[in-house]
């Protein structure tokens, strides 16, 4: 029998992986937006809104943010077969799996060791996505499957069962390092605390006084106020020693019922408790919102910003608030690479988290930016604003993905993109070669570094022997330098501290050049060949 731990999900084209180009990000100050004045000492201004393909954007973020993101929330296309305004939500199952796999792997690299990923999904792909996440994150890092009540309306025209929920799959980067924040007790929870005996310390909750372990010093007779003899239930013992029990009785912290004849219970006072609850996996609409609430919020925000609301399945701010409360703390970095209407950034901003959002659709400009401006200006009274006492402040910087580093010339040869200036070229090649881009103010040949003694120099010049010799002398024997140039005329083995390579030849085989869109749109996807007689798009196989 095959070992179930070695079974994996398979699909046509799984072996095909994109060779992503690590693009640089270009800020557009005209679209960035900052509050006119600081509201608090904790205002955050370095949030990022990135316009571009989210897979390329995730790759672009890795060099700076790998291991630094505390919480990722994504609301990807559900692949239901329905036509959505901003993306085709009916992709072929096998293609959908490949696209999600590539994004999950990049997200895992971006997460901190104590970070977590939260994905909303419905029944159509949930269980395949669960297995896909098991592969990307490791099955032992699965945290939970939260069931979110997305609607209160029963559809009597449903073919079979009327769906009332979506799933929220939760994965940790490392389960041993992952911890959740407890939630504030609700009014319903507080109502369970009462003051049955008018204790001056206030309301209390009766909790069992017995425990599951059998220890001789914790097994003794208790006499109730009515004179009844009590012993621990079979297989259990009292939770404290006799001496401690007598102290609790003297302090009126043991309750035997109104008639003094019941089982011993310990008083847990509301004013002395943590007043926190461990999150559970059922999220009703009261605590996490529902689709109707989300659509109302989207309409209110659109009217406030003077735009038309076009989102079919926005998520309520309450849902994001609940996730961020559990998985992050103020100041932590939040990422959403399927920004949609911008709810994640809006909620993270109001809750004092740093955020990065990625969106390719034009609604990034028509909906997300106007929404965020209202949040920053304190003119967004809806959603969670009242609950968190939001007054405005902070800001974000707008970035777009740079074009591909290489393009084809008139004769079909790969050349450096004409849109690249010297600064862009240096930053792009530093990222491509794994160097940190940090141009020196004093040394023209220091564009970046990989270690304290290893540097990189990028130039479009044609270098000769004299120039390379001068470079070698300036670098010195204690340092090394990677030189990327368009051409050189010299024997490079003469300079032990230099490595000289031509561009673009040096990078031609590294990536898929000139491809700007890996989005979830069918027209941008490669066709998956179907083998003769192969009807199944997915299945299980034993790993070799």
From TrEMBL:
Catalytic reaction(s) noted: a 2'-deoxyadenosine in DNA + S-adenosyl-L-methionine = an N(6)-methyl-2'-deoxyadenosine in DNA + S-adenosyl-L-homocysteine + H(+)
MF (Gene Ontology): DNA binding; N-methyltransferase activity; site-specific DNA-methyltransferase (adenine-specific) activity
Domain DNA methylase N-4/N-6 stretches: 69-366
GO BP: any one term: methylation
Alphabetically ordered keywords of this record: Methyltransferase, S-adenosyl-L-methionine, Transferase
Domain of life: Bacteria
Assigned protein family: Belongs to the N(4)/N(6)-methyltransferase family.
Protein name: site-specific DNA-methyltransferase (adenine-specific)
Organism: Thiocapsa rosea
